[in-house]
Amino acid sequence: MSEDDSRCVIRAEHIVRTLPGAVPVPLVRDVSLSVDRGEFVMIQGPSGSGKSSLLYLLGLLDVPTSGKIFLDGVDTSSLDEEELAQVRLEKLGFVFQFHFLLAEFSSLQNVMLPMERLGRLSPGQIRQRAEVLLDDLGLGDQMHKRPDQLSGGQRQRVAIARAMANEPLIILADEPTGNLDRASSANVQEILSKVVRERQTTVLAVTHDPHFAIAGDRTIHIVDGRIEVPAPDVRSSAG
Ligand SMILES: Nc1ncnc2c1ncn2[C@@H]1O[C@H](COP(=O)(O)OP(=O)(O)OP(=O)(O)O)[C@@H](O)[C@H]1O
């Protein structure tokens, strides 16, 4: 295995996702890509082009109709439902446009939940780690509040803390700033950039937000279910 291969955390080979039916609906058409550890990758493209569908496939929340997805070297097509759920819990963190925090739980309890499900830490360690994560994200004084007692930006930060709880290899974010004002959006961008830089977590984010998108190391453009390869720059090739 070369040095480059060892840094690869996601490899998709010719993935296709078609919704079956009398008239099959193609969502993703023959996408191949690879993403390395510690990369911040943006996924952009027109509305309805298949960005979320692709992210859900890469996050093992959906299964390709054909093609293969390797996650941290493991061929995920060989895993059953239970094994896929375990990989999601251990290796992936999710942040969505709508936070999907549990309404009746405090910030602290929401962040503790993935660690409790994984069951690798003692209750005391779980609580301590959740407190540190929330504190790091500037939510030290909001730990005992429920989601409806927080601002949109604060809720999104709790969702990021929850996504980071099990120290995932990869965070998948679908429009993480889609619902936020400019200041909260800049804050979320800063936090995710820091996670990439300091923990070498890989972040893949679908976004329409140009201010957020500039934080990426690179952008994958999706058009009509396919990766669009940018046209060569005629100015530079004209010499
Ligand atoms: N369950 C479904 N049933 C029918 N059509 C679907 C379903 N899921 C997605 N689609 C369609 O597939 C296409 C791709 O959807 P997807 O949500 O992946 O696009 P997107 O690029 O993320 O869009 P947006 O930027 O608007 O969120 C769209 O035309 C969408 O309407």
From TrEMBL:
- One of the Pfam families matching this protein, by short name: ABC_tran
> What domain of life is recorded for the organism?
Bacteria
Residue ranges annotated as transmembrane are: none
- Key words of the record: ATP-binding, Cell inner membrane, Cell membrane, Hydrolase, Lipoprotein, Membrane, Nucleotide-binding, Translocase, Transport
InterPro entries, per database record: AAA+_ATPase, ABC_transporter-like_ATP-bd, ABC_transporter-like_CS, ABC_transpr_LolD-like, MacB-like_ATP-bd, P-loop_NTPase
Question: Transport: present as a keyword of the record?
Answer: yes
The ABC transporter domain extends over: 10-238
Q: Quick one: a GO cellular component term?
A: membrane protein complex
Enzyme class per UniProt: hydrolase
Q: Which GO terms describe its molecular function?
A: ATP binding; ATP hydrolysis activity; transmembrane transporter activity
This enzyme's EC code(s): 3.6.3.-
- Family the entry assigns: Belongs to the ABC transporter superfamily. Macrolide exporter (TC 3.A.1.122) family.
Q: What is the protein's name according to its record?
A: Lipoprotein-releasing system ATP-binding protein LolD
What organism is recorded for this protein? Answer: Hartmannibacter diazotrophicus
